[in-house]
Amino acid sequence: MKILKGHGAMMKREEIMLEKIFKKYKLQKSALVPVLQDIQAEYGYLPEDVLRQVARKMKISLIEVFGVATFYKSLSLIPRGRHHIQVCTGTACHVRGAKRVLEEFERDLCTCAGQTTEDQEFSLETVNCVGACALGPMVIVDGGKYHGHMTATKVKPCIRKITRKEAE
Amino acid sequence: MKKIHSLAEFSRFQKTWSARKNGDPTVVVSSGTCGQARGSEDVIIAFEKVLSRRGKRPQFDFKVTGCHGFCEVEPIVRIEPRGIFYQRVTPADVEEIISETIGEGKIVDRLLFRDPVTGEKCLRAKDIPFYRKQKLLISGNNMRINPARIEDYLEAGGYAALAKVLKGVKPERLIDEVKKAGLRGRGGGGFFAWKKWESCRNAHGKIKYVICNADEGDPGAYMDRSLLEGNPHSILEGMLIGAYAIGVSEGYIYVRREYPLAIQNVETAIEQARKLGLLGRNILGTGFSFDVKIAIGGGAFVCGESTALMSSIEGKRGEPRAKYVHTVEKGLWNRPSNLNNVETWANVPLIINKGAKWYSKIGTEGSKGTKIFSLVGKINNTGLVEVPMGITLREIIFDIGGGIPDGKKFKAVQTGGPSGGCLPESLLDLSVDFDRLSEVGSMMGSGGMIVMDETTCMVDLAKYFLNFLLDESCGMCFPCREGLDQLLTIVTAITVGKGKPEDLQLLQEIGGMMKDASLCALGRTAPNPLLSTMRYFQDEYEAHILKKKCPAGVCKALICYEIWKDKCAGCAACAKLCPEKAISGAKNRPHEIDPAKCIKCGICKDTCKYGAIQVI
């Protein structure tokens, strides 16, 4: 009973949040991209049932909503891990060896770019240029911490630092 | 600040702004994205701490600005009005700067930039070789303006061009002025701005739009970001003038999501301009109305294409359409829409302020004004450089950029991003303008300039761009979607040693077909990086195909790591870090790599202090 109650409360909170987003954009069809971006920011991904609600509410066909959701890089149908690692693979970072850095992350985390580790701890992503080319190859952790001049050798210590911070 | 209701009121205000200068020195800290990545925020906190301190301390003003261009030596601190240029400043230097330079007027020697060639110390920015050949017409104000304060922009003469125009310049004359100036679009193609403006003005329709394309998707280019972050009002002013000339009252700025600071600064700028009556209804009491909305991109390279961008603003997939009917006639929501790039808009106030005659003296016959390039890759002085059109590649790369690091040899420079091409050493004396670059198989593009040295493999680079483009192709038209897939398959085969001599011919054919038959500019220009590397670096392709070797030592399937026995000291540093435990050997004896276990990650080479590990 207790669990059910908790579940109900969560559902309600979700509904309120969705209502808020719909209200913000006044259900305008042209606001589909920002609506999905806001949902992505709240959930970390786009859950299927939420996309269905979006389609119903905004009177856009579900296939169109899915079409947009799968078109843009910032939108994802896969849940994101607790930590978000972005490896910049812009041209400047590429010529300075970003590929080797990415491969090392993939090997160390046992996952591929665009995926989340099985334990839901890390999401690994590539990003096309963050405009900090002087520091390339560049890795951004959790959206704000910049790690410049990365090499394959620095990958393990970088991951260790994230997990250690957690433990503290 | 209160709302300004008339042009007369504005010019009264203007006088008070320009008169408002006190004698205190000003500390200017650059804090664009690259500055922040290097720790400028900590430096700012350190200065603010001193400012909040009670008791006796030297008096000074404090200003945080956008990017100063020289990303390599960020965080930069300038002391105005003397123009002292301190580089690589850390929070620990702050006390000394305040007590020595501001208090005593002395210079902190170790923070000055040293010319790597002459060894001389450079006191001011203009003494530094990086800045000496630049002409900072558009990006210069980045160093003077706090982007969060409209007052700073007004003090620097901002919105004067708008006021001048609103005083009664006829829209047709305005378009004519832009025509005489010879302003060409800075986003890629170099289309004449006046042509678009005129067609859009003449197009039928009550509601029209002007749009600013800030979806800077070219990986390795970030000049638009720096302008949006550092001087957003100059772009708004440009759009206002454009809107007046075309007869538009609504505008959009389409910014990519990867630039959070730019979005924030543009939002602030729009709000402040509205409050002051420089955006909105009845601007400065002249009856002219114009307002701007921000649309945030979802992260798709193709959305830099005009029709795809407009369809993205409409809330759809960012797919382009064929341009039988131009966007100036039927664009956003099927209404006439004029789209220009960030840098193009930023040029407009300059042309109005200084006049077309003055502007058209800068640059070459076909390309007027300056262009901002992001000089990145294997280069000593990474940063944004603004140079007059017509300067040579050699001047940019060697005089401004300071050449290639670690004494390596220059190999190629890539301009124009994924739509551009790679140019070899023999073309270094090419003068940089729209037409010359197209002639040699590259393009100006948005201004990315990626320098490569001998350790960059050109086949691998072509593969990189094909991969990027295949990922970013919207998939709507067949030539682009399938063509890229085929090109990538063939080039990948070449990089793993499975290339055949006849592949080169096939690549040419597919590339030619894509150029002719693709729907939008993304597909039509997609083969450029591949075809230009094939044209200028044919020997490298042949080495991969015939000799099964990668001369630059990049393509994993064609290389092998080996330890030089006479250089190896047997310290075992590499063996410890090797993820596959492929390195073995007795202590203090030369080690060996087991090629069967080696995954060629290169960690051993990075670790070795003796340079004993080589790629063959």
In short:
The complex is a heterodimer of chains A (168) and B (616). With 168 residues, chain A is an alpha+beta fold.
Question: How would you name the CATH homologous superfamily of the largest domain in chain A?
Answer: Glutaredoxin
Count of beta strands of chain B? 19
Overall geometric form of chain A: elongated
Mean pLDDT of chain A comes to 87
The helix content of chain A is 40-55%
Head-to-tail CA distance between termini of chain A: 35 Å
Share of β-strand residues of chain A: 5-15%
Alpha carbon gyration radius of chain A: 19 Å
Mean pLDDT of chain B: 93
List the quaternary state of the chains. Answer: heterodimer
Rg over C-alpha atoms of chain B, rounded to the nearest angstrom: 27 Å
- Which strand order do you get reading across the main beta sheet of chain A? 2-1-3-4
Secondary structure category of chain A: alpha+beta
How many helix segments of chain B?
A: 25
Q: Tell me the domain tally of chain A.
A: 2
| SS content category of chain B | alpha/beta
CATH class of the largest domain in chain A: Alpha Beta
In the CATH scheme, what's the topology name of the largest domain in chain A? Glutaredoxin
Task: Report the sheet with the most strands of chain A, covering strand number, pairing sense and barrel closure.
Answer: 4 strands, mixed
**Sheet with the most strands: spatial strand order of chain B:** 12-11-15-13-14
